[in-house]
Amino acid sequence: MDIPLASTSRIEKKPELVEALKKVLPASSILEDKAETLAYECDALTAYRCPPMLVVLPETTAQVSEVLKLCHKMNIPVIPRGSGTSLAGGAMPSADSVVLGVSKMNSVLETDYRNRFIRVQSGLTNIGVTNAVEDNGYFYAPDPSSQLACAIAGNIGMNSGGAHCLKYGVTSNNLLGVKLVTMDGQILEIGGAAFDSNGLDLLSVVCGSEGQLGVVTEATLRILHKPEGALPVLIGFNSNEIAGQCVSNIIKAGILPVAIEFMDRPCIEATETFSCAGYPDCEALLIVEVEGSLDEIDEQIDKIMVIAKSLDPTDLRRAKDEEQANRIWLGRKSAFGAMGQIADYMCLDGTIPVNKLPYVLKCIGEMSKTYGLSVANVFHAGDGNMHPLILYDANKPGELTKCEEFGAEILRLCVEVGGCLTGEHGVGIEKRELMDYQFTADDIDAQLRIKDVFDSKWLLNPLKVFPLHHTEARRMAFNC
Amino acid sequence: MFFPSSEIEVVAILSEAKEPLSVAGGNTRVLAPSGSKIISTSKLSGVIDYEPGALTMIAKAGTPLSEIQKTLNSEGQCLAFDPYNWSRFINKKGSSTIGGVFAANVSGSSRLRVGAARDFLLGIRLVDGLGNIIQNGGRVMKNVTGYDLVKLFAGSWGTLGILTEVSFKVLPKPETEATIVIHGLNDQLALDAMIDATATPFDVSGLAHFPKQKETMIRVEGFENSVKYRVERLMEIFKQYREINTLDADKSMQVWRNISLLSSLKSNNDDLWRLSVKPTESTQIVQKTKFNDYFYDWGGGLIWGLASPNQDVREHVPAGYGHGTCLQTKSERIPMFHPYDGTISGIKEGIRKSFDPKQILNQYLVI
């Protein structure tokens, strides 16, 4: 990973910056001591870390605006941060930057059931949104695995998904509006309670821009009425190909499950040892969950059973109640923890067209032999969002580099078969240099020009998303 | 007029262009001002790839919507957002294109449940105002690689570039559908009923109200038993209304097809308005607009109305409650799009200039 040298002239401005910040922020919102900023040196991509110049934790949108105005004036880069759960290094600081965390802004501002939205401060956790409305029978649909910890700010930054987006879509499909503070401190209201945007859809480009266009301090989110119930069915197959075929047949049959999860043999074995969920001994396993009343669920599962049976499954288990459902989900939900017990792992999240699943899994198997590193596959099969986990030993010299090369090869394959580098984690620093595989220079330039409009000095999260050689001139223009 | 038949020809035209150009698809959503020089996508036509098992299609932007729908129909699939068609008010000879549907982000009644056209658009190829070919997104459902220019282009009305290819998500057609009709409600009571329908787990896929006929429509779609079940449950919820009946699949389809064509609104000299508003405010807004005729869709979130010429009804949509678009007017005084505040306008103009620095594309639209 190429990390550019920090600007010493920026670092020298630290005392001046701290003095100015003290005038606009309470003392408790400024962390400048190494011990205090330690937790902000990295996010969930822990292989890379760097102490920031300082950390600020504003309490209001007005304070965010003041901080940004100051940094804008002094040409200091700002790294917006939600809860720091990014798997792509989206919140990793540089030594000459200020981390701006929104964690103190975590209130619910308005719940409106009649118009089906909730307005929250962006530091609220994802689960906090559903918690605020579930007593009234509502929920917020996007549910990334990190939902207990991850903040709405980060969900918007990365356009996060989750297990249930096959039916409900990702963050951008459930986001109605934001309050956005641009790098020069302007506070913009984009979108709101109406269904559609007015004219050019700025909201869509802010969502998924990885904190490079502005700092989101408030969000208006769609809430939905909970279904009457949901139950899964578990299907085991003797080959990845047939499991892939089953996914495709289910979708084609007009059934819209809320989730179709896929696990391959290495993953099944690891989670079985870890969680004793009682999974079958098979090559590939699908968990398909459908929603509705008990009768509606039955109707859909009947259809799924017919499709599955025609493909000669090794195992077919239908959950009749919540307890059986929990057993089916147990292994899947502990998959990442199980892999963590065995080894260090790198989690990829390239997406591929669903019909390319068997081919891609076969290629990954072959690469695994070439690199001498094991891979376990667990992913959202319904939308083709893969999560190959490459296992390695961080204590063995050179193994991380080998693992990264392997990962890059898998992601290149995803792009080759018509997919993309990242389906829900974001590019961050992790996949930055791979962007040239998916995009031409003109494709990237079109995106850079959007950033020019929002952040002409290139101070917001500047080292992320784009290959450094594309952004160097822009970043250096105000590097003083 | 230009009729490029390949992307390369679009590149050639735009890289050399010095004069303003109006971008035309099927001429059904908006008409370029008379006398303007037009570049049409009508010869960029054809389905490039269709994978029913992956629920995705890729087509050239000028492909007629009817051709797309026919192809999908043969596999039992559809464009789930079921776009509105207001060509009756614009140009009866036009024929919508798939690129035009996405460029104008046109969504129909199902938008309530499944999302807007923009939510189904997965990838685009386009030529910007300088003649650069740009690709964004792809053909997979989940994609957060780089900025989302796909949704930015959905609803950009040809002001940022010319779409040459679109890749989008399709869905299986529902097995069946039914519509509950409540008769005799005034606007406010109808709004309350529609909101009550959204506050259920019954996955309502259409909520419209016709004030003249005093008919409130509630649609559910899906597998047969499930539709039957949900209709029964909803009928229980609405049992306090004495005049209520259910339309079977055929009649239900006809009703919603007529809605998608704005059939209840008579085409005359009135201006055609589309207001996207906070649902609970819709009746209040309508009261002030003095529409000659109107109806609600999206459970109150969408109002279609006819107003006498030269009245900007947007003055009755308070800031933060939504926005209005004037889709047909003979008056030059009424801009098509809702004005917005200064800072946002700076960003929008900046984006527009970044894609079209020569300022030649659809200059007549202030979006």
CA radius of gyration of chain A is: 23 Å
Into how many domains do the coordinates of chain A divide?
A: 4
Biggest sheet record of chain B: 5 strands, antiparallel
Helicity range of chain A? 25-40%
- What's the main sheet of chain A like? 7 strands, antiparallel
Per DSSP, what share of the residues of chain B sits in E-state strands of 2 or more residues?
25-35%
Provide a count of the helices of chain B. 12
CATH topology of the domain at 7-172 in chain B: Uridine Diphospho-n-acetylenolpyruvylglucosamine Reductase, domain 3
Q: What's the overall average pLDDT of chain B, rounded? A: 96
H/E element sequence of chain B: HEEEEHEHHHHEEHEEEHEEHEHEHEEEH
Q: Which word captures the global form of chain A?
A: globular
Would you state the CATH class of the largest domain in chain A? Alpha Beta
Beta-strand portion of chain A reads: 15-25%
Task: Sum this structure up briefly.
Chain A is α+β, with helices and mostly antiparallel strands and 480 residues long. Chain A has helices at residues 8-11, 14-24, 34-37, 61-74, 126-133, 152-158, 165-168, 171-174, 202-206, 240-252, 265-275, 294-309, 322-333, 335-342, 357-371, 399-416, 435-438, 441-454, 468-476; strands at residues 30-31, 54-56, 78-81, 98-101, 108-112, 117-121, 138-139, 175-181, 187-191, 215-222, 224-225, 230-237, 259-264, 284-291, 315-318, 344-347, 375-380, 388-392.
